Every structure is written in structure tokens, then in C-alpha cells.
Amino acid sequence: MAQGLVIVGSLRKASSSRKLANNLISVAPPSLTLRIAEIIQLPMYNPDLEGRDVPREWLTFRKLVMATDAVLFVTPEHNRSVPAALKNAIDIASRPHGQNNWDGKPAAVASISRDAIGAFGSNNHLRQSLIAVNMPTLPQPEVCIGGGETVFDADGNVADEDTRAFLTVFMILFADWVERQKKVM
Question: Longest Cα pair distance anywhere in the chain, in angstroms?
């Protein structure tokens, strides 16, 4: 059984990204246990703080990433890219130089936004960053969900059965990806 983290790019508690993350966790197969790793508490990355002044939050986050088997990123789109908090989290766990905690960890990306293209820009921009930190990322299916405010019912569950089925298949494929990457590494 693999233990994974879910990194939610939106800091809002009631965001569509967080709702999507919770739905993805709920349809993950038993072979992949996931939990959300909060990033709101992370101070902005500043290399001047490496050494004696490393923020405790960075150290805690780095240990959490180091101890996980896989990472699912769920992101909205901010100006055709990932939110600053998400990029900051990636930077923190990939530093200091030579101590990349993301290295080799299998990943998957899901994005959601109110626009029709479902945060396609942030999804692809995030994938570029994951290449840079050496995270083998599930290539297909791409999950870019548009119309984010209409996807969920009043309880935060995916309202459409076809969308729920698609997300279930995505999570099955991600769990399989994680297992295949264990054999490669």
C-alpha cells in the first residue's frame, strides 16, 4: 500500500480545488492512501534562511514530503499559472540545492477553474515544474475541469455521475502509476 500526499494549490477552505481534492481522495483505490498536506503555513522561500535560521515549517514540510510515496497536486489557475503558495511549496521541498525531497516521487495533476478550459495553463505549467524536480508525472488522463462552481452539490460532492466516474478512473490509473514507478526506482 502506498501513502500519498495531496497538495492543494488554493488556500481558501471552501475552494473548488479543495473540494476536488476531497473527492479524489474519496475515490482512490485501497492501494493508495492519501491525505492533504497543508501549505498555508509555509513562509515564502528565501535561500538566505537556509542554515541556522531555517523556518520550522519548512523542516516539517520537507520531512513530510520525504516520507511520502506519491503526490497528487490539485490546482486552480492564477494568471495562467500555479498559485504562488503552490510554487513556494515546491521550491521549499526541493531545496537546499542537492536535497530535493520530491526526487523520483510519482505525481499526478488535477486542475479546476470556473473557466471553460479548466485551468489548463496552470496544469501544464505545474507539469513543467515537476519535470524540473524529477517527479515522474502521470501523463494521461489530463484532468482539467471547467465550470468549477457548478461541479459540486451542496455537500461538496461531485454532482455529475460521468465526472465522478472519470475521476475514479483517474485515481485508479494514478495508483497503478505509483506502483509502476516503485518498480522503476
Answer: 52
The boundaries of the domain holding residue 153 are 2-184
Closest CA to 122 of 85, 75, 90, 84: 75
Mean pLDDT of the chain: 95
Residue in this structure with the C-alpha cell 497538495, named with its chain if needed: 7
- 8 A C-beta contact, residue 156 and residue 113: no
* Domain CATH number, residue 56: 3.40.50.360
Task: Tell me how far CA of residue 94 lies from CA of 108, 140, 184, in angstroms.
Answer: 17, 25, 21
Number of domains in the chain: 1
Q: d(Cα 70, Cα 5) in Å, to the nearest integer? A: 6
Mean pLDDT for the stretch of residues 73-99: 95
Model's pTM, two decimal places? 0.96
| Strand duo 32-36 + 107-112: pairing | unpaired
Residue 145: helix, strand or coil by DSSP?
Answer: strand
CB atoms within 10 A of CB 136: 18
